[in-house]
Amino acid sequence: MAAEQGPEVFVQDDKRSNPSRAPLATGSWTCVQTDGRGSGTGLPAGGEDGTAQVPLGADLICAATSRTAEATLLKQVVNEHGGTLAPEDFQLQAAPSSDGTGLASKTVAGSDAPSESTAVLVRPAQSYTVSDESLVEDLAYRTGELQRYTGAPAETVDHQDAQLWETVPDGEITMEADGAEIYRLVSYDVAPSVLPKTGGLGSLSYLIGGGALIVFAALAALKLRQSARPPRRRTA
Predict the structure, then answer these.
(1) How far is residue 19 from each of residues 47, 163, 223, measured CA to CA in Å?
(2) Residue 230 three-state SS
(3) pTM of the full structure
């Protein structure tokens, strides 16, 4: 038995121990006998291996169940060096990690609070790489770790308690069917590079070195010019 493919993020239950036995089947089914008027008698009639045998004179009702998973993608921005960007200045994307899957990437607006706009449906058992993009021209930020929330699901999450967040290896998520998880991608502002203003030589060494190179180049050019000048002839 085969079911038409629905949305790409849904996967049909498949408990088949030997899929090659029914290669045209799309997964497992649940079948029950009926009384001929559409009411089930409660007697199971197979379907788990993708096939069903209809007893003589009996009717069957078979159903296939497909499932998906929901990932909530949040953004946290840590400003420790004077940065001013906020989660709303970013957007996040969950892209299928392997090529040829035909799955589309999912993009959400940056936010640090769970909502319908930060939740996306993903295909169970499929790996997704989570990344972000700044919506403003500010390069003084670096993308840090992807983390999964381990606290109790709620409308708000605790971003301050580090014990409630565990780092996800390689920045990839893979979810089980019917799963619902909250993830956050952290960005940090970068401390500016400042030359010393007091104490030591500061930038003086760079100025002296640059000046010496200019003088050396000028002397070398003068020497070459003199070497190329033809000797003068003396006349009696």
Answers:
(1) 12, 43, 85
(2) coil
(3) 0.73
SS3 228: helix
User: Which tokens hold the place of 175?
Assistant: 């979810």
Contact status, residue 120 vs residue 114, Cβ threshold 8 Å: no
* Residue 172 CB-half CA count within 13 A: 9
In the three-class reduction of DSSP (H, G, I as helix; E, B as strand; rest coil), residue 107 is classed as strand
**Residues 40, 49: Cα–Cα separation, whole Å:** 20
What is the chain's alpha carbon radius of gyration, rounded to the nearest angstrom? 34
12 Cβ contact partners less than 8 Å away, ≥ 6 residues apart: 3, 26, 27, 28, 64, 65, 66
Phi then psi for 203, rounded to 5 degrees? -90, 0
Could you give the 3-state DSSP secondary structure of residue 164? Answer: helix
The tokens describing 11, both together, are 């996967």
Query: For residues 152 and 75, what is the distance between their CA atoms, to the nearest angstrom?
Result: 18
Sheet holding 30-34, edge to edge: 40-44, 30-34, 59-63
Hey, what are 147's tokens? 């983390």
pLDDT digits 0-9 by tens, 105-143: 999 999 999 999 999 999 999 999 999 999 987 678 889
Bridge partners for 188 per DSSP: 78, 142
Q: Residue 63 to residues 3, 51, 163: CA-CA distances in angstroms?
A: 9, 12, 43
Element (H, E) at 222: helix 204-228
